[in-house]
Structure formats: structure tokens, C-alpha cells
Design goal:
By secondary structure, the protein is an alpha/beta fold. The protein is built from 13 helices and 15 strands. The chain has one domain: TIM Barrel, CATH 3.20.20. Helix 8 crosses helix 9. It is globular. 49% of the residues are buried.
């Protein structure tokens, strides 16, 4: 992407590396007219030109955090948080104005609020169908009863920050050894019947080679872990500093091909986003069977019908939800997620996780439907935008919104940091 600004001159940022044909991936999306998108993102709220509704709304419940991560788009760490009553009013407005979207309780670190279960319960009582908590997992690991209290309040999903299977990755990104804590958080959620999606922040020089290891762990932990949602690092909020070189970015096609190379999955097992802009992500649906993945998405990049935010919400929720009736901690008898092991360096090992339907235990339609309900597994990605690669065409189709001051704002517009002005970890 090449941009020219009358005040700052011309600058460029890589958005695609050609590992998947760009024109095929983005086919069918009409370009904006010259008179469109002129007020993106400074007047967003959402404006009448916005194309997509709210699939998911993020509500910040605190700025406090118990980590100080190298990359943090929310720039968390302040000792502030909104009052409980103001959050109840925000939940009411989100339910009414956002057509009852999925709600993400985020931060900061939301589990630092003692009243988090009450907030979850209030959201469910307001009519919001699905409630999710975005967390680093520390309190879920340390407070053995927290996951159970959240489950009893009606929490549906846990989005768990999970960057790799090597503590060196966590020391680099999070300044702390966290692998044992992450595993304990998964175990506690499993015992409470909560569904977990692992969320790695992916940086080329840190953990791009770890994707296969993360997916292997996730598949072994099915049906507790429902999938992995990859987020390539973006340069806004708190960042290492400065305008990044192209080598510091992980493009969507680069992520997808690395994922397939490390897992044995195929690019055709994935499809572009059908709700947001195709450059906003990919998804692949699978059945997890004994640590391997049966692909359900036959992802031709031929343009498909765009779906509404409500359709996307329900499609996603069906795959992330978990049946809590006698759910085991792991789908594999030998998958001991708490097993003490010497933490090894990033292996870069290639895994053979793809399992064709004909080679699986799916013998008939009844078995297939039962497995889809109980063993669904999703691999997806959402690369956020920053000042260098911000694209108004993507913003206008965004269905992931942040609630702020009574407005619903696309996430990439809300957290946007001026180029080169992000706060570094040291600051």
C-alpha cells in the first residue's frame, strides 16, 4: 500500500506478499467511489456510509492489567476503570443498538474486576446471546474458582492470550514466563465447562514458526479448546517503537501459508472473511478427532454471498460454543495438559494434523452431526490495521466494534495510534 499525505509525504507498507493470489482472495469486493469514505476514521461512530452491522462489540471494563506486554493495542496498565453502574448502562445500550451482538468484555485485564461474574450475568439478562472474556489467563489459573463462577454467571467463551509453547516467546512478548500458567488456565476452564479459544499475537521474528505447535496443542485439548484465532502484530497502542520495516509485519497470506506448511493443512481448507473485507481475515472449520483435524471448509476464493453481522455472529458462536454436559478436559485420554515437562525452544516442527473424512471415524450422518456439535474446531485470523496500512474500504465493512462514549466504532479506528507515536514498553 502506497499513500501520499500533503503534510507527511509518501510512505508505503506491505499488505500482501503474493503467497496466495491477491486478486483471487479479494475478488468480488467493489472498490469505493471517490466520494466515499472521506470521513474514515475521524468521524466514525458508525456513520451512514458504514456497510456492516455489529457482529461483536468490545466493552473495556478496566484499564488495569497484571502484565506489561511489549505489544498492547489497548495500551493497558492505568489504575482506572469505569463504575459498575456505567457498565450496566453500556451493556443496555449495546444490546439495544447493536441488535444484540456478541459481547467481548475486555481491558486491560477484565478478570481483575471482582464483579466480573455479575457483569456477565447482567449482559445475559439484557438479552445479549453470547458473552466472551478476553484474558491473559493469570487469574483464571491462580483462582481455581473464578472459571466456575463465570460459567455459572453464563459466560460462553474465553479468548485466552496464548503466544506459543515456549517460555522464551512469553519472555519476549509478555516479559514473563507464562506457559505453565496458560496451561493451568485451560485446565480450569475445562473443569468449569467453559469453551476456550487460543489467541496468539504473531510476530515474524518471534513466533511465526510456532503456529503448528500451538495448533497441535489446541487440537489435543479439544473439546475444551475450540480453536485458535491468530492476530498478526499491528503497530498501534503500546508497541516496540517507531514505524516498522516490512520485515516486522506478518501479512495475512504469509500467516496462512506458514500455518499450512507447519500443520499439513491446505490453503483450500480456508476461506476469506464473508462478513468483513477479505483482507480482514480467514477462517477454516474442522472437526477435531484425536488430535487431528477433519476439514469442513472447502475454501474456494470464488466470491461468495456476503453475510450479515447477525449471520456471522451465529456462525461463529455455533463453532465456539461447548456442550457442558459431562465434557471431558481433553478429547484425548493421553493429552495431559498439565504434564510437567522441560520447556523446549520453539521446535519449528512440522505436524501432520490434516485428516480426510474418509479416514476418520465419521461413519454416517448421525456421527457427523454429533461430532460437529461436540468437536467443532476453528482456525481463524484477524490482522488489525494501523496508521501505515489503514484502509477505508476495510473500515467500512468492519463488524467488530468498540463501545465508547455511546458510540460503536470499528476497532481499528478506535485504537488507531498516529504513525511512529505509539508508546514503547520502556515508556
Amino acid at each position: 500500500m502506497v499513500k501520499t499525505c500533503p503534510h507527511h509525504g509518501t510512505y508505503r507498507s506491505v499488505v500482501w506478499r503474493g503467497q496466495v493470489p491477491f486478486s483471487d482472495w479479494t475478488a468480488g469486493v467493489p472498490p469505493m467511489n471517490e466520494a466515499e469514505g472521506l470521513h474514515c476514521p475521524e468521524n466514525c461512530g458508525l456513520c451512514p456510509e458504514h456497510i456492516q452491522g455489529s457482529c461483536c462489540v468490545v466493552l473495556e471494563v478496566t484499564k488495569r492489567c497484571n502484565l506489561h506486554c511489549r505489544f498492547c493495542f489497548a495500551d493497558a496498565g492505568e489504575d482506572t476503570e469505569p463504575s459498575y453502574d456505567s457498565l450496566l448502562e453500556a451493556v443496555r445500550q449495546i444490546a439495544d443498538r447493536g441488535s444484540r451482538p456478541m459481547l467481548q468484555l475486555s481491558g486491560g485485564e477484565p478478570t481483575l474486576r471482582r464483579d466480573l461474574p455479575e457483569l456477565v450475568r447482567a449482559a445475559k439478562d439484557s438479552g445479549i446471546p453470547y458473552v466472551q472474556v478476553n484474558t491473559n489467563g493469570i487469574r483464571l489459573a491462580e483462582d481455581t474458582g473464578l472459571a466456575q463462577r463465570l460459567a455459572e454467571a453464563g459466560l460462553d467463551f474465553v479468548f485466552l492470550q496464548f503466544d506459543g509453547m515456549d517460555d522464551r516467546v512469553y519472555r519476549t512478548l509478555r516479559a514473563k514466563d507464562l506457559l505453565k500458567i496458560k496451561k493451568q488456565a485451560v485446565a480450569n476452564c475445562g473443569a468449569a465447562g467453559l469453551a476456550v479459544t487460543l489467541v496468539p499475537a504473531v510476530a515474524p521474528d518471534i513466533n511465526l514458526s510456532s503456529l503448528g505447535d500451538i495448533v497441535k496443542f489446541a487440537a489435543d485439548c479439544s473439546p475444551v479448546v475450540r480453536g485458535v484465532h491468530f492476530q498478526p502484530v499491528s503497530y498501534f497502542g503500546r508497541i516496540p517503537g517507531g514505524i516498522p520495516a516490512d520485515e516486522g509485519r506478518c501479512t495475512l497470506d504469509e500467516l496462512l501459508t506458514a500455518l499450512c506448511d507447519q500443520t499439513g493443512l491446505k490453503v483450500s481448507d480456508f476461506a476469506p472473511s464473508r462478513c468483513d473485507h477479505p483482507l480482514c481475515g480467514f477462517h477454516g472449520s474442522f472437526i477435531a478427532e484425536q488430535g487431528r483435524l477433519i476439514p469442513l471448509t472447502h475454501g474456494s476464493t470464488v466470491p461468495r454471498r456476503m453475510i450479515t453481522a447477525e449471520e456471522n455472529r451465529d456462525f461463529t458462536a455455533r463453532r465456539w460454543l461447548r456442550s457442558r454436559k459431562n465434557g471431558p478436559v481433553s478429547g484425548n485420554a493421553d493429552a495431559d495438559i498439565l504434564q510437567e515437562k522441560t520447556v523446549l525452544p520453539v521446535s519449528g516442527q512440522k505436524h501432520k494434523l490434516r485428516l480426510d473424512m474418509k479416514d476418520s471415524s465419521v461413519a454416517d450422518m448421525d456421527v457427523f452431526l454429533q461430532k460437529v456439535r461436540s468437536q467443532s474446531f476453528t482456525l481463524s485470523s484477524m490482522p488489525f490495521q494501523d496508521a501505515m496500512n489503514l484502509d477505508a474500504e476495510r473500515l467500512r465493512r468492519c463488524s467488530l466494534h468498540v463501545f465508547r462514549g455511546g458510540d460503536l466504532i470499528p476497532l481499528c479506528a478506535e485504537y488507531l495510534t498516529p504513525a511512529g507515536q505509539g508508546r514503547s514498553q520502556e515508556e
